[in-house]
Request: fold
Amino acid sequence: MNEVTKSLLAHRSFRSYQDKEVDEGQLEQIIQSVQASPNWINGQQYSIIAVKDKDRKKKLAELCGNQKHIEEAPVFLVFCADFYRTYLASEMEGTTLNIAEDIDTLIVGVTDVGIALGTAVAAAESFGLGTVSIGGIRRNALEVIDMLDLPEYVIPVSGLCIGHPGEDAGQKPRLPKEAVYHEERYNRNQQPILEEYNDTYSRYLRERPKNNRIGTWTEFVASFFSKRYYQGIAEMLRKQKFPGG
Ligand SMILES: Cc1cc2nc3c(=O)[nH]c(=O)nc-3n(C[C@H](O)[C@H](O)[C@H](O)COP(=O)(O)O)c2cc1C
Reply:
C-alpha cells in the first residue's frame, strides 16, 4: 500500500469537529486538487461556494435539516452542477444553449460534481482533516439557491463539511467486493451477498459505541427508496433551467 491508498482506505465521515480553523494553504490545495481532476470535455461543469461565516453556516445547517455539524465545521463547501459558464460561452459564440432539452446534461453536471466532491474528500483527508458530505443541501434547495445567489443553470448538489476531526465514529463496513466489482459480465446473483452483508451491517449498528440501532442494510435502503426523500427537486431543476424539471 502507498500513502495515497492508505489514506483512501482509512476514510470515514466525521460529524463533529474541533474548534480550530482549517489552514488556508490546505484549503487552497484541496481546491487545486479538485481543479486538476477529470471532467466532461474539460467543460468543468461545477462550482464550489465556500461558506465560513458563522451565521450563514447556522442558517445552512437548518436548511439542510438541522445538521449541527455544518455549523461546527469551520468550512462548509457547497458543490454545484454549473452550466452558467456554458451559457456565457454560448452567448459569446452566438449559439443556442440546449441543456434543458437533454437529460444527459444532468448526468454530466452531477458526474463532474461527484468527481470534484470525492477529490476534495481525498485531498482533505490527506491533510488529516475530517469531512462529511451533505446531500441535505437539496432539502430546501430554493432557499439555498437564493442564499448563495446561484444564477440560472446552477444547482446545489452536495455540501461538504471540512474541519479538524472531533469524535471518531469509526469505519462503516462496506459491501463485499463481489457485490460491486464484476469481471466481464454483471453478476445478478447478489442476494446471498446481501444476506451476508446484512449480518455484518446489523452487527456493526448494534455494537457501535454511539447511535447504535437495530436493522439490516436491505431494510434501511429499501425503506429509504420507498418514498421520495427531498421534495421540490423538479421545481428546482425547472427554476434553474435544467432538464428533468
Ligand atoms: C453525496 C453524499 C451526500 C451525503 N449526505 C449526507 C448528509 O446530508 N448528512 C450526513 O450526515 N451524511 C451524509 N453523507 C454521508 C454518508 O452518510 C456516508 O458517507 C455513508 O454513510 C458512509 O459512511 P462513511 O462516509 O463514514 O464511510 C452523504 C454522503 C454523500 C456521498
